[in-house]
Write the structure tokens for this entry.
Amino acid sequence: MPDSTLTTAERAFLTELDRLGVRFMVVGMSGALIQGARGATEDIDLWFEDVTDSRIAEAARASGGTWISGSFGMGPPRVGGEALSERFGIVTHMSGLGDFASEYEWVRRETIDGVPIPVLSLRRILESKRAANRPKDTAILHALEDALALLDAGEPRDGWPSRRCGVRAWRGASRAGR
């Protein structure tokens, strides 16, 4: 098993976004896993304040990837390329939530593989999953509610399985999150 949750290129991309001051947050199931929810996902969902921000492309290039802003009207925004592959998913809105600026108030700062990462709070992710009401979202609601109850109760994170385990689920593994 790899010692890192993120690939070298993924770490470089997220580090560059932070260094350049790009406002973004990890959302969806990947954000929930970081905060202790049990489950799995294959991608890392990123929500950017402005997908036309040229600094996103700069961060992608610096990490060996490419950025397509989607502003051409030909498809959704995406980041990828040989180094970054296709693991990052780009979210342009969250069901049942406000705009990026209002939801940014709910961001928690987490560190994964030494990289500071803004993550939408589990409470807001849960609210969005409820509002989306897709079968895959309703199937995981109980796990998100359980994780939120532990956070609200102030349960020490030391008692949970390793954070790395939860984020490794991003790789598509079927293991439970933290």
User: Anything to note?
Assistant: The domain at 8-169 is CATH 3.30.460 (Beta Polymerase; domain 2).
